[in-house]
Structure formats: C-alpha cells, structure tokens
Amino acid sequence: MDCHKANKLLVHFLEGDLTGRYKEKVEAHLKICAHCQKERELFFQSWQILDNYTTPKLRDDFTPSLMKKIHTEQIKNEKVSRRLPRFSLQNLALVSVLLTVLVTTFCLLLKKPIQENIAVRIMPLPIKEKLVSPLNHQTLSGDEQAVGYGDAQQLVNNEKPSTPVAGVSLEVAPSQPQKVVTPEKGVTPLRDEEVVKNLDILENVDFLKNIRLLNDLEVVENLKEPIP
Amino acid sequence: MDSFDNDVQLMLRFQDGDDSCFEQLVERHKNRVFNLAYRFLGNHEEAEDIAQEVFIKIYHAKNTYKPQAKFTTWLYIICKNTCFKVLRKKKPVMVSIDNDIRLEDDSVPYQIADPNAPSSLDSMLNNERALVVKEAIDSLPANQNIAVILYRFDRLSYEEIAQIMGCSVTSVKSLLHRAKVNLKEKLADYFKNC
Fold first, then answer.
1. Residue B186 to residue A73, Cβ atoms within 8 A
2. What is the pLDDT of residue A138?
3. What is the pLDDT of residue B90?
C-alpha cells in the first residue's frame, strides 16, 4: 500500500470503520512510513484539541427571565385577540359607509350627463332664432316662445303648434290672446333643408317628450295650453 | 427513572396544563441548547437569544407535541433549525481597517489572586488554544460544524445525528470524515509551531 491510499483510509482506520484486509494493510504501512505516522498524529491531535473548546456559562436567571417573557407575550396576545373583533367591526362599518358614499356619488355623476344630453337635444336658442326670424320680425308672444318649435312645419304654415314642446327656457307671458303669426311679405321663408333639419331635431324632441326626465324640467311645468 | 421517559412524561404533563413541568424541562436542557447554539454561532448573546427562542417554540408547540421520538431529538431539531435560520440572516460584519483600536487606560480593576487559578502563562496558552479551536470549528461548513458538535461534544450516535439532520447515517459519516480532514488541515500549522 502506498501513502496516497493509506491517507485516504486513515480517517476510517482511526474511527474503527476498517476491517479485515484493509485494516491490516493500513497497520502494516503505518509501521514503516514516517510521513503517514505524522499524519495519523495530526488527525489525532486535531480531534483531541476540541476538548479545549469551552463554552461560557449561561446566566443564572435564564429560566425566570424566559418564563416572564412567555407570560408577557401571552398577555399581549390576549389583548390583541380581544381588540381584533372590535377593530374588525369598526373597520367594516367604515368601509361600508365609504362604499355607500362612493356609489351615491357615482350615481349622481351619471345622472348629470344624461340630463345635460337631454337639454342639448331640446332646441338650442340659435336654432330657435333661425326658425323664428324668417317667419316674421315680430316678437313672439311669451306663449309662442315657450312653445318654441313645437311643430316647425306648423309655424311655417302659420299653424298653431299642436303640442307644446318643452325645453326652451322662457318666461311665460301672462295669458294673452295668441296671435297667429303669418309671414309677411318680404320675409324669406325657411328653406326646405333647414326645415328637414329642424324636423329631425323635433323628432328627437318628440321622442324625448316621452322620457320621464322631461317632467323634471321646470319649463314644462310652466308651459300653457297650446294655441287653439 | 430513565431520563428519556422522564422528559416525555414532563412534556405530557405540561400538555395537560402543568407549567411547572415546562420549567423543569428548561432547567434540565438549557445548557445543552445554549452550548450547541454557542458552538455553532460563536456568540454569547446570540446563543442566549436562540436558547430562549427554542424554549418559547417548545412552549407554544405543546399542543402539537407527539412522543414519537426522544424529547432531546425533538429539542435538537428545533435548535438546529433555529441556528440555521439565524445563520442565514447573519451578514458579515464590516470593520474599517482605518479605525484605531483603543485600549482603556487605568481601567484595570483591582484583583485578588486566586491560589488555585492557573498561572497567567497557562491561562494565556489555554485562551490561545481555545481561540484556535474556535476559529477552526467556525471555519467548517455549517453541516460539518453541526455534525462535529453533535458527535464530539454532545456524544450522540450516528443514528441520532442522522435523525436530527434529516439525512442518512452514511451522510453523517461522510460529513464527519470531511470535517476531520478540514480540522487537521486548519490546525496543522498550529501544531507545527508548538
């Protein structure tokens, strides 16, 4: 056996794990090899010197201090567990209030654009002026104005508006005899395109009439009976 | 009464609500746990903290404890796991080489000589040897370190060490083999100079 093989088996030999042929071979080699004898000595000393590894002493009050720490933690955990349901209920109430407020705000915000859309669909003043001004240069009575463009064709044909249409915010004049506006000479009648365009608007207005929200508009409430 | 049975009995009585049994267990095993933690980490304060943490875990685990093995095996497993957890969290301490090492002047307390105490030279040699051994053991990889501590200092068998470390007996032998080779290489220079 050479030194290389003997060194590999040396630790097992020292631990007593080697048996039979291998044990004999290592023993025989150690008898004649000074280098391997030194290695064996080093292994032995490095293992024995571990006895010098002393540990410091643990403090005397370790156990009482430990028990105190455990009891303090227990009291702390009990307090936390008591607070937890109350905290959860409060938290839950707060969250539900916040959610309610958010939902209400959201609904209100949604309502506003719808109302605005409806208001836009109802005749804006510039268009109204277009219709009115070609008919005559006379000012319409309050009722006529309030009626607005109920029926553009009717107005063009000097007919009374059959159905009052909401949307035009006007002051309603006190009851006055309704005049039928007749186009005078020299007044340029509405062009057909404009009439059609206004009719489109009116159709929408008619449609909107049926919408419940129109009832909320103050103008509708102030409209008088249409011109007979 | 066999201490193995005694530990299990104490633990079972503690499960039933007798806290004094837990205190008895602490008194019986506190040094074992502290020594293992100290040899593994090399720090006194950390070792005390770990010892406390181990027993607090045992306290809180009383309802889940089942006497399937020796109480000390269970104790060692908890201690080993706690030590490994601390080691993982530990970061290397950075020390500036530009800092001066200051010695306190006129601060040596008055001492009364103890006739039975070793001589100052012997103390110095012992301290030096202890330091060398400590450094050698601290330089071992964690698995080899714990195997050496459990085998060499706590005198546990290969089977018990295998159970604690969660590996086979062959693995334990292999770890110890490599640890011995490493220790020999680390301490060879020290023995040459002696």
1. no
2. 45
3. 74
- Work out the number of other CB atoms within 10 angstroms of the CB of residue B180: 20
Name the more confident of A186 and B124. B124
* Chain A contacts to B (CB-CB under 8 A): 11-12, 15, 17, 39, 42-43, 45-47, 49-50, 52-56, 58-59, 62-63, 65-67, 69-70, 73
pTM, entire model = 0.58
Nearest Cα residue to A114 out of A200, A1, A216: A216
The whole-angstrom separation of Cα B82 and Cα B36 is 11
Nearest to A224 by CA among A182, A163, A135: A163
Is it the case that residue B79 has pLDDT exceeding 80?
yes
Interface test with B, best of A35, A49, A57 (most B CBs within 10 A): A49
pLDDT digits (tens, 9 = 90+) for A93-122: 888 999 999 999 999 888 766 665 665 565
In 3D, which of A140, A137, A161 has the Cα closest to residue A151? A161
Residues of A in contact with B39 (CB under 8 A): 53, 55
The Cα of B98 is separated from the nearest Cα of chain A by a number of Å equal to 31
Span A205-219, pLDDT tens digits: 555 556 666 566 655
Q: Is the dihedral of CA A168, A174, A175, A177 positive or negative?
A: negative
- The structure tokens 């040596």 sit at B108
Amino acid identity for residue B51 in this structure: A
| Cα–Cα distance for residue pair B37/B154, rounded to 1 Å | 12
Contacts 24+ apart (CB under 8 A), A157-164: A158/A182, A158/A183, A160/A226, A160/A227, A160/A228, A161/A226, A161/A227, A162/A226, A163/A206, A163/A209, A163/A226, A164/A223, A164/A224, A164/A225, A164/A226
- Collect all residues of chain B within an 8 Å Cβ-Cβ radius of residue A12: 177
Q: Rounded to whole angstroms, how far apart are CA atoms A71 and A65?
A: 10
Residues of B in contact with A7 (CB under 8 A): none
- Report the gap between the CA of A45 and the closest CA in chain B (Å): 8
Q: Do residue B133 and residue A50 have CB atoms under 8 angstroms apart?
A: yes
* pLDDT number for residue B101: 46
Q: Which amino acid makes up residue A228?
A: P
Q: Do B56 and A47 touch (CB under 8 A)?
A: no
> A80-96 in b/e burial notation, b at 16+ Cβ within 10 A?
eeeeeeeeeeeeeeeee
Q: Per the CB < 8 Å rule, is B51 touching A46?
A: no
